[in-house]
């Protein structure tokens, strides 16, 4: 049996990597391995893991034995463990395509780099990991807990929606409204659970089998499917269709990774997902996914990875004192990670990378009558194209020769095809008084109006308030 040290940056809540670490640790412990988890930030999940027989520490120096292998989730936690145990080989696992904590450390003592899907594998490759050192192992589901229900209803009557944390409250309201209205149209009752609605379920397996349909994403979607629920893949960024046996055959390069965004979250799309319900297909889907993600089978893969890493390390030779790479990584990581984390938060908050044109039109219904480009406005994240500065409370400015507004057609129709622009222009002091500047407004490629500015007009304190009509 092996001594295995698993790292994770947080062991507190029931998020994806935390639960993956939790369940992997228990499965390895049940197989007879000595398992310990190191995380610099502990909480209730760590206490629960300790109660199950797996020790968890937030001080790696307290570990009184040398492990055979380090299973590294999250680079900064892995680097700390590798420095503490300078003669132990490691494997690194990438769980996310955007988090700075999933950036791989390039060092010879990491014998294998594991990705949970193809999108994460691509991140490893573009970060400098050699292709022959990468492998994909998907997250497992404990099929002993998520048992297949004995009877699958011929007609769906109940639905469960697992609502994860949303980056914008407007998106969450839109998401819940679309699902609720679609279920109501098909006489299906719907319950909401999850951190996003303040109703986090400690054990999803205890309730999910009661529902005919489940709206979920990622791990929760796989777990629900294994119980015999009809899973419609949805999250705040899009609609991924139905999780069926065909998807299982293509996985992991399919709907549950970052490749999910194949469609907009619309009432029509959700209805089509509900209407795809067929009891026999639901059962086939459940059987296919249970076979694919069964934790007992995937644990064997992890054991094989560990033994191969240990053997390769012994064959290659000792890399003791080769940890200059780790030192350089750690010394520059925190400033870089803080900056990257902020950038990720801004990208998610503004939704520039995730909101598609179809979503823009569907969100128009939630915008108030007076829409200002204030700092926290949803409008700023969708309508401001290239050429604009960062929005402020009073509005937004540009110093480029041109700046783009992305005006949804539905928005124009909502306000009778008439838009009111309150604009002004700032001239340098050296510009002559009769200097003229202009702003041309377009909808698509069609010009709908021109605003003209003169230095003389603006010096008299008269901004341009223009009424533009789209015919």
Structure in words:
This protein has 471 residues and is α/β, with parallel strands linked by helices. Helices cover 37% and strands 18% of the residues. It has helices at residues 16-30, 44-51, 75-84, 118-126, 169-185, 218-227, 245-250, 267-275, 279-293, 295-316, 324-350, 357-363, 378-383, 409-414, 455-459; strands at 3-7, 34-38, 56-57, 69-73, 90-94, 110-115, 134-136, 158-162, 189-193, 213-216, 230-235, 238-242, 418-423, 436-443, 446-454, 464-469. β6 (110-115), α4 (118-126) and β7 form a beta-alpha-beta unit. The N and C termini lie far apart (75 Å). Residues 257-261 and 346-359 have low confidence and may be disordered.
Describe what is shown at a glance.
The chain is α/β, with parallel strands linked by helices and about 475 residues long. The chain has 15 helices and 16 strands.
Coarse morphology = flat
Rounded Rg: 27 Å
What structural category characterises the helix and strand content? alpha/beta
Question: What share of the residues lie within helices?
Answer: 25-40%
Mean pLDDT: 78
Low-confidence stretches: 257-261, 346-359
> What is the number of helices?
15
Largest sheet: 7 strands, parallel
Number of strands: 16
Strand content bin: 15-25%
The main sheet orders its strands as: 3-2-1-4-5-6-7
Distance between the termini: 75 Å
Q: How are the secondary structure elements laid out?
A:
Blueprint: E1 3-7, H1 16-30, E2 34-38, H2 44-51, E3 56-57, E4 69-73, H3 75-84, E5 90-94, E6 110-115, H4 118-126, E7 134-136, E8 158-162, H5 169-185, E9 189-193, E10 213-216, H6 218-227, E11 230-235, E12 238-242, H7 245-250, H8 267-275, H9 279-293, H10 295-316, H11 324-350, H12 357-363, H13 378-383, H14 409-414, E13 418-423, E14 436-443, E15 446-454, H15 455-459, E16 464-469
């Amino acid at each position: 049996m092996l001594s295995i040290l698993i790292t994770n940056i947080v062991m507190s809540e029931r998020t994806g990597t935390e639960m993956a670490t939790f369940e992997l640790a228990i499965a390895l412990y049940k197989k007879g391995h000595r398992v310990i988890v190191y995380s610099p930030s502990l909480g209730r999940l760590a206490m629960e893991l300790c109660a199950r027989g797996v020790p968890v520490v937030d001080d790696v120096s307290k570990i009184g034995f040398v492990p055979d292998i380090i299973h590294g989730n999250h680079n900064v936690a892995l680097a700390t463990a590798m420095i503490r145990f300078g003669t132990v080989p490691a494997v690194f696992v990438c769980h996310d395509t955007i988090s700075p904590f999933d950036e791989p450390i390039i060092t010879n003592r990491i014998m294998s780099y594991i990705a949970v899907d193809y999108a994460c594998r691509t991140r490893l490759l573009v970060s400098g990991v050699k292709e022959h050192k990468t492998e994909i192992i998907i997250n497992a589901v404990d099929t002993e807990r998520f048992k297949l229900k004995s009877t699958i209803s011929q007609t769906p009557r109940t639905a469960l929606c697992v609502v994860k944390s949303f980056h914008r409250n407007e998106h969450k309201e839109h998401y819940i409204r679309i699902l609720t209205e679609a279920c109501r149209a098909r006489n299906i009752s719907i319950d909401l659970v999850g951190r996003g609605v303040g109703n986090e379920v400690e054990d999803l397996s205890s309730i999910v089998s009661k529902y005919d349909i489940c709206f979920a994403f990622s791990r929760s979607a796989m777990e629900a499917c294994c119980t015999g629920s009809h899973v419609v893949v949805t999250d705040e960024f899009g609609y991924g269709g139905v999780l069926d046996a065909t998807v299982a055959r293509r996985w992991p390069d399919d709907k549950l990774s970052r490749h999910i965004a194949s469609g907009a979250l619309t009432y029509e799309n959700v209805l089509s997902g509900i209407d795809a319900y067929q009891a026999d297909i639901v059962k086939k889907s459940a059987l296919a996914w249970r076979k694919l993600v069964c934790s007992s089978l995937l644990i064997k893969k992890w054991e094989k990875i560990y033994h191969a890493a240990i053997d390769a390390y012994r064959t290659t030779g000792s890399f003791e004192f080769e940890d200059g790479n780790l030192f350089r990584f750690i010394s520059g990581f925190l400033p870089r990670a803080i900056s990257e984390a902020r950038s990720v938060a801004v990208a998610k908050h503004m939704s520039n990378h995730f909101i598609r044109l179809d979503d823009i039109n569907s969100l128009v219904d939630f915008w108030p009558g007076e829409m200002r480009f204030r700092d926290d406005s949803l409008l700023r994240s969708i309508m401001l194209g290239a050429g604009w500065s960062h929005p402020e409370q009073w509005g937004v400015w540009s110093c480029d020769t041109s700046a783009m507004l992305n005006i949804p057609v539905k928005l124009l129709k909502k306000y009778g095809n008439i838009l009111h622009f309150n604009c002004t222009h700032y001239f340098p002091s050296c510009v002559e008084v009769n200097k003229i500047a202009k702003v041309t407004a377009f909808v698509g490629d069609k010009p709908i109006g021109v605003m003209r500015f003169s230095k003389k007009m603006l010096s008299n304190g008269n901004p341009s308030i223009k009424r533009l009509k789209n015919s």
